[in-house]
Amino acid sequence: MFTKQTGFPKGFLWGGATAANQIEGAYLEDGKGLSTSDLVAYKDPYAKGVVDNFTFNVNSSELAEYLAHPDNYLFPKRWGIDFYHRYQEDIALFAEMGFNVFRLSISWARIFPTGLEEEPNEAGLVFYDKVFDECLKYGIEPLVTMSHYEMPITLTQKYNGWLSRELIPLFEKFATVILERYKNKVKYWITFNEMNMTLNSLYTGSGILEDLVENKLEAAYQASHHQFLASALAVKAAKKIIPDAKIGCMINQIEAYARTTKPEDQLQAVKSNQLNMFFPDIQARGTYPSYMTRYFTENAIELVMEAEDERILKEGTVDFVAISYYMSHVTEAREDASELAVTFDSPIKNEYLELSQWDWPIDPIGLRISLMKLYDRYELPLFVCENGLGAKDVVSADGNIHDDYRINYIKKHIEQMQEAIEDGVDLMGYTTWGCIDLISCGTSQMSKRYGFIYVDQDDQGMGTLKRIPKDSFYWYKKVIETNGAYL
Ligand code: BGP
Fold first, then answer.
1. Does 118 qualify as catalytic in the annotation?
2. For the domain that residue 389 is a member of, what is the CATH number?
3. Which of 409, 433, 446 to mutate to test the pocket of ligand 1 (most atoms within 8 A of CB)?
């Protein structure tokens, strides 16, 4: 009567993930408008002396300075890895690895250069037509993120990004246009990348200039409220336009562990995890969870909502919950409730875990724990749509890249996904982050590499852009060929 699932189910989706602003380049080509990500300058957070200054946020004077003197800055996301012109070669390499899914995002500013136009930019739409056709030629399903950390810069200048409710109809128009246009090519969609990361960066997550807001925490939740509504409307549109669409939400899943068995620390971990799951709680269940009422009150957060919002959220719940997973986090009891949200930079080290070269704790079992908890909570299919190791790769004298550390990292995470599946979790797929080397989101560095495919380009944008399969390329190919049996 009870038969345990062994190994990965048939039809499991194996592939890799990217984002438009980290790969495409061609930042002003074919009518594309400037996007918020085009104005993120290169920063090395680990260079001596600047660690404390490192921030993902942009303020209004920085923005004015960037716009007035662009030549004074390195903006690596403007070049990406030239996927815009090399997508055929790159997709052929993904096909060689055996991908049956490829996650990418659509740049809003390619379709609506300022976000305000009545009609979309046809040349922008044509580009993604070509990319999807190329994927489908090899039997690769595109998994499309509608909004991955960028928007037309005009929407930041005019409205201060997602702080304004005005963005909802503008996004709905964008979503409807791409759903209509690609309805016969794209079945898998994610509305917003890592919704919870607006708490970490108002600019990256929501296009907000942080010095223009008084209460940053309140701004983050108000912007999130607008994104929840936009996401729900996009889900509703997707169901109408593509009846068999699968459309999901996404968070950066950073499981919080209590530092000790002290009940106060345990309680803190419960609260931290609630703050993370608040996002899928709304997107999967369609209502604000009750635990947020106390949090909002105690943090002087007053959200502006309208009568119709409750209905919109209810009508736009997702089909699946997607996560990116890189690390876990350690927390302990503290006074300041506003500090509860999990972040990349946990001040408390977990003595059981090794760190990546960028000090991210490596915790494969944390992935299993996350999947088990999320599945218990939502009973919806899950998707691990980002996971991977950022590392400084070296091209050896033999011309190859021997990245056994990356193989080891991904292997351990796949093992834990398999365990989770055997625990009963319904997992749809796995797309490793940065399947081809790309520009890092948080640092704009090229040298923080995640790929199975090396791209010859340095932090200053110098290099031939030649693609070289790494050792991990051949390893992942075998993993996919055997549906995860070979690890
Ligand atoms: C996630 C983002 C990706 C990404 C990845 C790795 O938060 O969705 O866009 O780049 O993290 O982060 P980083 O590039 O900063 O190493």
1. no
2. 3.20.20.80
3. 433
How do residues 236-264 score in pLDDT, each as one tens digit? 999 999 999 999 999 999 999 999 999 99
Range of the domain at 451: 13-481
Total count of domains within the chain: 1
Residue 12: both structure tokens together: 């499991």
pLDDT tens readout for residues 347-398: 789 999 999 998 899 999 999 999 999 999 999 999 999 999 999 999 999 9
**What's the complex ipTM?**
0.97
> Is 1 among the domain residues?
no
Catalytic site residue 310? no
Protein residue whose Cα sits closest to atom 4 of ligand 1: 441
CA of 385 relative to ligand 1 center, distance in Å: 12
Ligand 1 atom at shortest distance from the alpha carbon of 448:
16
Q: Which residues contact 347 (CB under 8 A, 6 or more apart)?
A: none
Pocket of ligand 1, beta carbon within 6 A: 19, 149, 193-194, 252, 324, 386, 390, 433, 440-443, 448
- Domain membership flag for residue 3: no
CA-nearest residue, atom 16 of ligand 1? 440
For residue 6, being part of any structural domain is answered with no
Which among 24, 134, 141, 194 is annotated as catalytic? 194
Structural domain includes residue 441: yes
